[in-house]
Specification:
The chain is an alpha+beta fold. The protein has three helices and three strands, in the order H-E-E-H-H-E.
Length: 89
């Protein structure tokens, strides 16, 4: 049973399709190998999501710093299409 108080839980009128067990396993394996940072760009109000494999973690330190972003700012950026996704090699 899902907890409706959790942000990822579907609402009463919303349902999620059942994913094949193998796909779920593969996604969980991939997710365990990823690291990410989320914040505001120093030069704009865009929210930046930096994503890469755990092996790329040292390279995150060489990128420009990201300012912290509140949940409400993140939600507004998503609604306004001001989210930039960067892959870190």
């Amino acid at each position: 049973m899902t907890d409706p108080t959790q942000p990822d839980a579907p609402g009463p009128e919303e349902t999620r399709p059942e994913l094949p067990a193998e796909l779920v396993r593969q996604l969980e394996t991939l997710g365990a190998q990823l690291v990410w940072r989320v914040g505001k760009d120093e030069l704009s109000d865009d929210v930046v999501v930096r994503l890469g494999y755990a092996s790329a973690t040292p390279r995150f330190a060489h990128l420009p710093r990201l300012r912290s972003v509140a949940d409400t700012e993140l939600q507004a950026a998503v609604a306004e299409n001001r989210v930039v996704i960067e892959w870190v090699d």
